[in-house]
Every structure is written in C-alpha cells, then in structure tokens.
Specification:
By secondary structure, the protein is mainly alpha-helical. It has 3 domains: 357 residues, no CATH class; 100 residues; 138 residues, no CATH class. The chain has a two-stranded antiparallel ribbon with strand order 1-2. The longest helix has 32 residues. The radius of gyration is 34 Å and the shape is elongated.
Length: 784
C-alpha cells in the first residue's frame, strides 16, 4: 500500500507496442492436455487452481490463502524469469504455450476477481481512505504486461535492454504498480482506460499491453476469435483508440528507455486499431452496409506514429531495411495485419507522409521468411502466408508494390545498377515482383478474372527493372527470372506501347543498356571457350536469350542493334566448352529464340538480326542433346517448322531418327513427372516436323527401318483407340494427335504420294514458362 496518490512521472511516459502482421507463420499450440509442456506444469497447475477456487469463501481460510500464495508465486516467478531473459529452464515451446494460457480472457477474469477480493479485504483493514491498495494480482498484471512485450519481441531482449540508472528503474517499477492500482476492478472495463483522460500513462501502458496479449498474441499463437461481445466489439475498440489518439502528444521529448516504451505503446495501438478495423469491415461487408472512412485526424496521427517508428533507425528517410529491429518495430512488422491494412488506407502516396508505407512494406518484405522466434522454423513457405493478404485487396497491393519498385528504381544509379544492391533489399524486390506476378497470373488485376495478361504499367516497370538490375547475386537472378515470366504474359499491343515508353526515357537509356549487356555477355562467352561459363554468365546468357525471344514474339523490332545481336547469337552457336553440362543447358533457350526469330523473318522485314550461320550448325546443336531431352526436341521441331528448310540428306536422316525416337518415347509414355506434361504438348509439333522432313526426296533410309515400323504401329494403335470419358495420358495424347498424327501416318504409309506437310497450316503458337528439373524454361508451344 502507498500513502499518496501520485501516478507516473512525466519522463516515464508510455510504451511501445509491437505490431505487425500474421505473415510470420507463428507456431500454433493446442490446449489439449496431451500437448501441454511438462516444464510449465507448475504454472499450468497454478492457473487451474486459481480458476477453481471459490474466492468468496476464502476470507478466513488460511489453507486457501496458502494455496493462492503458492499459485501466485509460481506464475510471477515464471513471468519474472522470462522478462529478465533468464527463462530458468523453460523452453520456447513451453513459454509460448503458457502465453496462450495466461492471455486467455477466462484467466484474466479470474485474476481480476482475486484482485477485487484482496483489494476489498485491504480496504476494510486500512484506516487511511486515501491510501493506494496494491496486492499480488496488481503485481501479476504488471508482470503480465511486460511478458506481452517479451513475447512480442521474439523473446529476444537484446533490443529492449537500454541502460537505466537504478534510481529511475525503481521509480519505473513503483509507477507501474501505482498504474495497476488505477485499473478497473472488472476485466470487461479494461479497454476503456485507454481513452480516459484521468488515467495515468502507466495505467494506459499496462492496459495496452494486456489488450495486445489478448487480442493479438493469443490469436496469432493459437487460432481463435478474440472479439468477445462481453468485453468489447471491434467498433468500440476503434472508438477507444481514437479517443486515446486525441490525447497523445507526438512532440513529447523523451529519450532512451522512456522513448522506446512510448513507441512500443504507439505500435501496439496501431496493431489493435488495424485488427479492429479489418474485423469491423468484414462484419459490415457481410451485412451489406457501406464502410464509413475514419476521420482524417485519426488516420493522420496513426500515419505519423508509423512514420516515427519505421524511419527511427534511419537518417533522411533513406530507403532500405534496418540492420536490426527494436521491439516497437518488431511489433509493427511481425504482429497483426498492419501491412495489408496500410495498403488499403494509404495506397495513394500523394497523402502527406504516406511515403513511409513504402519503407514499411520494404522492411516487411525483407523479413517475410525470417522466423520471429529463433529455433522455431516457419510452418509454411512465405508465399502461402502472404497470398491471403494480397488477394484480399489486389489493387491496393499492386499500388504499393509498384511504389516500392519505383522508389527502388530511383535509387539505382547507372554506376551501381550493374552491381548487386544490399542483399536484403534484393530479396525484398524479388518478393515484390513475385507478388505482382502472382496477382497477374490469378487474373486479379484485370476486370475479367480469366484475363491473366500483364497490365501495361507493370510491363513498363518490369522492362525498366530488367535492364537496370545486375546478375551477380542470387536474389537479382531470381528477380530477373520472375520479370521474364511476367513479360511473357503481356500481349503484343502492350509490348508495343511499353517499349516506346521505355525507349523515350532518356535517363533510362534502354537500348544502350541492352546492347551493353549483349556485348559484355558475348565477350564472356568468347573468353570461356576453353574453360566454361560460370553460373552467373550462364544465367545472363539464358535471360538475354529469353528476353529477345519474348520481345520478337510480340513483334517488337528495332530495339536492338543487329551489329550487337548477330555476333551474340553467332558466338553462342559456335561456342564449345569443356564442361559438357553447360551447352545442353542453353540448347532449348537458344533454339526457342532462333525459332521465334525465323518466324518473324518469314512474316515481315526483320532488321534486328543478320544471320550469317548455316542451318546445319543449328541442327547439329539440337542433335547433340539427344532424343530424351524433350525441351530441346520441342524447340528443334519449332525451328524446323519456322524455317521450312532442310539440310543435306545425311543431316536430314539424323534429324528424322532423332525426332522419331522422341516420338516413340512419347507414345510409350517414357517421360515422367513434369516431362510427361511437356511430352503431351510437344507431340503434335514433333509430328509436324517429321512430316516436313518426309518431303525430302530420299525417303527410303527413313522408312525402311524397324524403328519407323514401330512408330507406324504405335501411331495406328493410338489413333484406333475409342474415345471415352476417362481422362488419362493416352486419351489426352490421342486428342492432341488426332489430326497431325493421322497426317504423319498417311505420309509414312504412302511415301510416294508426297502428302507430307503441303497445305498443313502451322499450329498457332504461344509462349509458356515451365519448371523442368528445377530450372525455369521458356518454350514455344501450340496454343491450346
């Protein structure tokens, strides 16, 4: 008990609350007895015993008071050990499981009952009416509020340990107990303390942390609905926090420990407000009523609090992740749903101060796959964690990700663009591109949900990022691979518009940069003739080939110089390296790009390339890969169909045998896993290429062989199968081979008729990205 009524001194104001979002994939713990930790059994038993007591009968029962004393000691000792960082043998799983139990509203109701009971006893025995009564339950509430911060920090107190003189530390603890004494006697009245002008900063600090434990920590560790109408509704919580914000002084001078505690409280309130607003929006949407925007002053203060916390460790608002997050920033980024909520509210960055949302998003992106609790791996991949949030409001997610890329591009100078930026920034940009690609592929960025074309604004910024990013770091390589996959989704009209836009940006110097990359890569190829390409050079070659293929497929000519592209392709065709695995890795990429180039040359004047290599060079390149390489065989078949040219009789016979053997492998279902689907796609293209080769006058060598006879037999067997409703490999293959397969069968059966491929239209083609043997490939395939 205390004989005066002072609350908290000014320098010991409020605290910071850790608010972020559920993207961190936190572990969940069941409350079933079989899964409860053995180490925390004493605490669990204490909670159960307190809940089972009939406190109204315990006034004069010494034995019952001893039981309460034992239970309270067990709980408080546990909280002290965690808050001090010692943990005294408690494992991480033990602590998190007990956190779920201690932040259960039913336990807090029990705690408040004991507090009310002991306060009544103390009041009756205290003659001084002005005294402040403090009991063990008040101390437990203070420790529990500190425990919420410890858990929110990931149980890592390194960022929360700011030195404080012993005298100030004692004063802080004293003020906390006084603040706890001001808390109402009923748990249900607890949220209202935040908006009371008469409540001390210490009381509000304790209340905010307790609410954070109940409404944020417990639901995120143990899936449950925290919004109990007996306590408060989402709308009531928002009104209470708005009342608190009207009282806050953002310019209050604080330093060290007190400044950190103030920011923790701010972040906690941001997280609580966002969760309440999101749940309130869900309730309103279910009822069909319109969502009313909150007052500008409320959102303005919250934006200022976010800005003060997220830019805290930086100077001048520089864009990039902080080296280490303090507790307040951890709360903002790792708990709750602050990030997606901020996208919806501040996606228009013309709002004053809204640019901090870009920094907030980048900080979040850079830490998506980092576990909050060391030693507890994520239960799922970061992509599955983030997907529900970006799909909740695709336009808002797109707008912010676009802003992140725009700011990133603005910070890439010509002198640094060729080199990797900060690794964490590169990872964040990769995730940003993945999100935009995912939204596009799901059809969430167009009016028609089945329309998966890349919007023009995304196409433009992806083109800029492609020529501006380096290849010397894994995140940059992965980012450029995503960009290429996204660019393949844009149609020809979008490409034409966007290429003109990037060409007109003098500061970007798009054509010159692309030429430089082609020239540098060509020199690397020539320098590796006797050794091999390293992985960085290999990826650079593949990406440039892929980019050229996508660009030419969309009929964009004149954006590269033939003096650069022609030597680049020629050097690739003539290159031979000692490491045999290098060249096959480039086979399909090179053949696909050459196929697209040849088809464009056949359609119209094509100034980009002056091919001074022979067809037999390309054919021999394809034949080296072997008939088991389905991606190379598909690309080779497309090249034959694009040029409609054959080579000398011996090379023609080798190509026939190569394609025939691949066709036999497809008919006998020898390709497995992801190659099985590619085999179904490639089958009609290979058939057309075989038909074209049969136009050669010398057919005897091709037809008089047991393998060709076997092919004839397998084709007849496939086409003779009856159509049924069962969808399997054979039925799908028959459907795709019904026309071209019969043409090939006729050409083999009647070689003298010369039926071949005369008059057979070339199948309409499209680009397809696929994963084959953990490598992304761009293929030219028949349009389904």
């Amino acid at each position: 008990m205390y004989s005066d009524s002072d609350t908290e001194s000014d320098f010991g104001a409020s605290d910071v609350a850790n608010t972020q979002e559920t993207y961190s994939s936190l572990p969940c713990f069941s409350s079933t007895p079989a899964e409860k930790p053995w180490v925390g059994r004493d605490v669990e038993k204490a909670v159960e015993e307190l809940g089972a007591l009939d406190i109204g009968e315990s006034d004069s029962e010494t034995e019952l008071h001893e039981l309460i004393s034992s239970a309270s000691t067990a709980i408080c000792s546990f909280l002290d050990s965690v808050n001090s960082g010692e943990q005294d043998g408690f494992g991480l799983k033990d602590i998190l499981a007990l956190a779920v139990m201690l932040f259960d509203p039913s336990f807090l109701e029990t705690l408040f009952q004991h507090r009310r009971h002991f306060h009544r006893i103390a009041t009756l025995s205290t003659p001084q009416k002005s005294s402040i009564v403090v009991c063990w339950a008040d101390s437990a509430l203070v420790k529990l509020s500190e425990f919420a911060v410890s858990v929110a920090s990931g149980l890592s107190n390194s960022s929360n340990q700011i030195s404080m003189p012993k005298g100030l530390s004692i004063q802080w603890q004293d003020d906390s107990l006084r603040g706890a004494a001001q808390i109402p006697y009923k748990w249900t009245f607890l949220p209202g303390v935040l908006s009371l002008e008469q409540a001390s900063p210490a009381a509000k600090r304790i209340v905010s942390r307790l609410l954070f434990g109940v409404f944020v920590i417990r639901p995120q560790l143990h899936e449950c609905n925290p919004w109990d109408s007996r306590t408060t509704t989402p709308l009531q919580m928002m009104e209470i926090i708005s009342g608190f914000l009207r009282q806050i002084d953002m310019n209050r001078p604080l330093v060290g420990w007190f400044e950190l505690q103030e920011r923790i409280t701010q972040c906690i309130l941001v997280v609580l407000f966002t969760l309440a607003d999101l749940d309130n929006r869900r309730q309103i949407s279910q009822s069909g009523a319109p969502v009313s925007p909150w007052k500008p002053r409320t959102l303005g203060i919250m934006l200022e609090m976010i800005e003060c916390n997220i830019l805290q460790p930086k100077t001048g608002g520089a864009v990039g992740p902080a080296d280490e997050l303090d507790v307040a920033q951890t709360i903002l980024l790792r708990w709750g749903s602050t990030i997606p909520w901020s996208w919806m509210v501040w996606r228009d960055l013309r709002i004053a101060g809204a640019e901090c949302i870009v920094q907030l998003t980048l900080e979040w992106l850079c830490r998506l796959e980092q576990p909050l609790f060391h030693g507890v791996p994520s239960l799922s991949h970061w992509t599955s964690d983030v997907t529900p949030h970006i799909e909740a409001s695709p336009p808002a997610a797109k707008a912010i990700m676009m802003h992140v890329l725009t700011v990133h591009m603005a910070n890439l100078s010509p002198s640094t663009s060729a080199h990797s930026s900060h690794t964490e920034v590169s990872l964040g940009i990769f995730k940003c591109c993945w999100i935009l690609l995912h939204l596009t592929k799901q059809g969430l960025l167009n009016l028609d949900s089945s329309d998966a074309r890349l919007p023009s604004d995304l196409c433009t910024i992806f083109l800029e990022l492609f020529v501006s990013s380096g290849n010397d770091a894994p995140p940059n390589i992965a980012t450029k691979a995503l960009i290429l996959e996204a660019l393949a989704l844009a149609d020809a009209d979008t490409w034409a518009i966007c290429m003109e836009i990037v060409k007109g940006k003098k500061e970007l110097n798009f054509i010159a940069r692309l030429d430089d990359q082609l020239s540098l890569t060509r020199r690397a190829i020539k320098g590796a003739q006797e050794e091999s390409l390293n992985d960085v050079e290999m990826n650079e070659v593949k990406m440039l080939l892929t980019f050229l293929g996508i660009m030419w497929h969309n009929k964009c000519n004149g954006y590269v110089h033939r003096q650069t592209v022609s030597p680049f392709l020629s050097t690739l065709l003539s290159a031979r390296w000692s490491r045999e695995s290098v060249l096959p890795e480039l086979h399909d990429s090179l053949l696909t790009t050459l196929s697209i180039m040849e088809s464009r040359r056949a359609e119209t004047a094509f100034p980009d390339v002056d091919p001074y290599w022979e067809d037999d060079t390309v054919w021999n390149l394809a034949l080296e890969a072997g008939s088991c390489n389905i991606t190379v065989t598909l690309a080779f078949s497309q090249y034959i169909l694009s040029t409609k040219r054959l080579c000398d009789p011996l090379t023609n016979a080798e190509a026939w045998s190569h394609l025939r053997d691949s066709m036999l492998l497809i008919l006998s279902q020898q390709f497995l896993q992801e190659e099985e689907a590619l085999a179904l796609i490639a089958a009609p293209v290979i058939c057309q290429a075989l038909c074209l080769i049969l136009l050669n006058n010398d057919q005897a060598a091709k037809l008089h062989s047991p393998w060709t006879t076997n092919l004839l037999k397998e084709l007849k067997s496939l086409l003779a199968r009856s159509i049924d409703d069962n969808v399997n490999y054979t039925s799908l293959l028959r459907d795709r081979m019904s026309i071209v397969g019969q043409r090939l069968l006729d050409a083999i059966s009647s070689p003298g008729a010369g039926s071949g491929s005369h008059g057979m239209p070339l199948l309409e083609r499209e680009l397809l990205f696929c994963e084959v043997h953990s490598s992304s490939r761009l293929l030219l395939v028949p349009r389904l």
